[in-house]
Design a protein that fits this description.
Strand content: 15-25%
Strand order of the largest sheet: 3-2-1-4-5-13-10
Number of strands: 15
Oligomer: single chain
Number of helices: 12
Radius of gyration: 21 Å
Order of helices and strands: HHHEHEHEEHEHEEEEHEHHEHEHEEE
CATH class: Alpha Beta
Structural class: alpha/beta
Number of domains: 1
Shape: globular
Largest sheet: 7 strands, mixed
Distance between the termini: 36 Å
């Protein structure tokens, strides 16, 4: 949470067994994507706000912190790709569930050559395109924009060039929506992998199901949270289904819609089916501690941590939210309020690499896992 904080091990999730019933959805009949319209409507109705308005948000620093994690993670894997490429080679990216285009400048700074943006919310896609058109200094990459549900449709069929090979697929704070059903999760995994060339990466930020369930058990209730976030389960928490483990998630001023637990070993298996091998999985808490020194300047530039004491300016949280910072011996430090840290530490980053493959007699790929 701050430079004076410990290892963050208290935020790590304790693994727990999850019931594997014959029916992966726990025996509940569902229509694939029945919650998609709710998610779509929520993000279509979410108002675009400028910096002045965002700076008044209770979770202003937490949102900046999440953006810092995204920036560092994108740079980490775009750097790996660039280091493996020859000079002048194309760098093509799919931003799956791109929202309003908050990562466009990150891609410009990374000097990618082509970007495909997809999102379920058509209003968000339009805003993303407007942002792209308004980028200053001349655009350094070409782009295409697709409004569709990546959990239900084959993205490749919507690309301008379906034969295009991608270097990176990024899905930030959205992949968990596909765990509504097996068919949706399978579709999303295929979309992440299908056009990714061998050696390329699929990276994502998702809620940590183990951490969520740990907190639910500590609360001993189906609803829990704090002043900035709340989770209310709509499924059996003793034996949650592998798919459709639904909860209502509220994050102050940003999110208020249904989400689904992602049982990570199952995500690994789905990705493996499409030739994606797990190479990185780290909680936000641990990722911060691993990268806070190398990313120190970016933390400051993005205003990702709040100054404490705040030199006469009001704090974003109540004074009781900063007990962890009061007894530090460093004087003024930069940190997050307790509630913001609890919210951001619900998440993890993960990365998968596309493996090489041969073909069997039936024309199906046989992936070469180490």
């Amino acid at each position: 949470m701050s430079d004076s904080e410990g290892s963050g091990s208290e935020q790590r999730a304790r693994k727990r067994p999850v019931s594997r019933s014959p029916s992966p959805d726990g025996g509940i009949k569902r229509i694939a994507g029945e919650n998609s319209s709710v998610v779509q409507s929520h993000y279509n109705e979410l108002k675009e706000s400028g910096l002045a308005e965002r700076s008044k948000s209770r979770i202003f620093h937490m949102r900046n912190f999440n953006n810092w994690v995204k920036s560092m993670f994108l740079n980490e894997f775009l750097g790996k790709i660039k280091n493996s490429q020859k000079l002048g080679e194309h760098l093509r990216v799919l931003d799956m569930c791109c929202g309003k285009g908050g990562d466009l400048l990150k891609y410009e700074k990374a000097q990618i050559t082509h970007l495909i943006c997809t999102d379920i919310a058509d209003v968000s896609i339009e805003q993303c395109k407007v942002r792209y058109d308004q980028m200053k200094g001349g655009r350094k990459f070409t782009a295409e924009f697709i409004a569709c549900d990546s959990t239900l449709v084959r993205l490749r069929e919507k690309y301008k060039d379906p034969s295009m090979k991608l270097n990176l697929v990024s899905c930030q704070f959205a992949f968990h929506y596909c765990f509504e059903s097996l068919s949706q999760a399978d579709c999303m995994a295929r979309n992440a992998s299908e056009c990714l060339q061998p050696g390329g990466y699929f990276i994502a930020t998702i809620p940590d199901a183990n951490e969520i369930m740990r907190r639910q058990r500590l609360a001993n209730e189906n609803s829990f949270g704090n002043s900035v976030y709340n989770i209310e389960f709509c499924c059996d928490t003793e034996n949650p289904p592998l798919f459709g483990a639904k909860y209502q998630f509220h994050l102050e001023g940003v999110v208020d819609c249904p989400e689904f637990l992602v049982y990570f070993p199952l995500l690994e298996e789905l990705c493996k089916k499409y030739g994606l091998k797990l190479v990185r999985k780290t909680s936000f808490a641990d990722y911060f501690h691993e990268n806070k020194e190398s990313g120190k300047m970016l933390l400051q530039r993005m205003n990702a941590l709040e100054s404490y004491p705040n030199k006469g300016r009001p704090l974003f949280g109540d004074d009781s939210e900063y007990e962890h910072a009061k007894n530090n011996k460093l004087g003024n430090i930069r940190t997050l309020s307790k509630s913001e840290w609890e919210a951001t530490s619900l998440y993890l980053v993960c990365a998968f690499q596309k493996c090489k493959n041969t073909w069997d007699a039936n024309g199906k790929p046989v992936y070469e896992f180490d």
